[in-house]
Amino acid sequence: MVSRTEPECACGDTSAVNGGKKRIIFPCAGVANVGQISNAAAVQLTEEGFGTATCIALLGTGDAGLKTRIAEADEVVVIDGCPVICAAKIAAAQGVTPVQHIVITGLGIEKGPSRNYTEEDVETTVSAAWEGKGRK
Question: Against a cut of 0.85, is the pTM above it?
Fold first, then answer.
């Protein structure tokens, strides 16, 4: 019989962030174009060293390890695609208050039924995060 161990999830691992603030980024990652933009922007922000993209679904489970990493982070950033704000609602349900909450449709990007989007749409969202447009 083979013993199986669960791999530890690296979501929210802020140790990979070099210098600056330790940020955890939660994209909504919805199916519409703006959800796909949220995910692409979170990945790009991670690659640029802004923070660490993290799975909103894991937060929804109430994962204790992720909650510990959130407590250790300097900031939580939520990127929602549209005014339904699914990611922000999941965060609130888990007692997490983002320092910055970006809603992509609020940046002038129209929500559409397809998953098509442009690099400009992603860059608009990434720039909004760097500029702090979603700060409260």
Answer: yes
Domains, the chain, ordered by start: 20-131 (3.40.50)
What's the pLDDT band for 17 if we cut at 50, 70, 90?
low
d(CA 108, CA 110): 6
| Rounded distance between C-alpha atoms, residue 2 and residue 111, angstroms | 48
- Which residue type sits at 83? P
What is the rounded distance in angstroms from the CA atom of residue 116 to the CA atom of residue 14? 30
SS (H, E, C) 3-49: CCCCCCCCCCCHHHCCCCCCEEEEECCCCCHHHHHHHHHHHHHHHCC
Note the pLDDT tens digit of each residue in 44-98: 999 999 999 999 999 999 999 999 999 999 999 999 999 999 999 999 999 999 9
